[in-house]
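Recall from the previous lesson that a structure prediction takes nothing but the amino acid sequence as input. Here we apply that procedure to N-acyl homoserine lactone hydrolase from Saccharothrix ecbatanensis. The sequence below is the only information supplied.
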Amino acid sequence: MSDPASITVTPVFVADLYVEGERMPIYVHVIDHPQGRVLVDTGMTELHPTAADLDPRLRPLSEQDFDLAGIDIVVNTHLHGDHCGGNHLFAGKPIYVQRRELDDARSEDDYIREWVDAPGVRYVPVDGELELLPGLRLVPAPGHTRGSQVVVVETGGRPVIIGGDVAVWHGEFDEPPTEGRQRVLALDPELVWLAHEHEPWRPRTV
Ligand SMILES: [Zn+2]
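The prediction returns the following C-alpha cells.
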C-alpha cells in the first residue's frame, strides 16, 4: 500500500469556450501516483462545427509543455467532446470509462463519434466501482450523463475528488442533487476538482 499523501493532483488548462456571456475553462487533471501517472479527461485538440459558435480557444496537450508519453493510464469522466477530444493523443494506452457511457457515446446524438472512436483509441469498459491503483478509485456518478464517473483519491484524510462535470459550475452543488452529486457529497470530500472551474469546490463547513 502506497503512502496516500504521495498522490498529487495537478489541473492543466487546455481550452476555453464562450458560454452564456462568459469564458468557460476546460481543465484536465493529472494524478501522480507512485505506481503511475494518470490523466483524467483529455480536452479538445481541434475545432468541431457543433462548437463553432462557442468561439473555442484551444491549448491542446500536444501543443504545450506536457509529457504525453509519460501518461500511463487515461480516465474519461464521460465522453462529451470537450472531455475526450484528446483521446487520440493516447492511442494504445488504456482509457478507462464506464461501459454505459461508452455505449451511449456510440449510439446517442450529443457525442462526437469520430472523437470517441478515433484511430488507435482503446477503451477499458468499467462496470461500477473500480480500484484503479491503491488509493485511487473510479466511482459511477450518473447525472450529467448516465455513464459519468468520478475519480476518488485517498489522501489519508478526507478524499479529493476529480469530478469532471458532476457539477458544471460550483452553483450546481446547491441545486437538487443528481445521483452523482449525492454520491460525491456522501464521500465527504475535502475538495472536488471540476472540469470547468478554475478553483476546486469545497463543501461549506458549518
Ligand atoms: Zn459534459
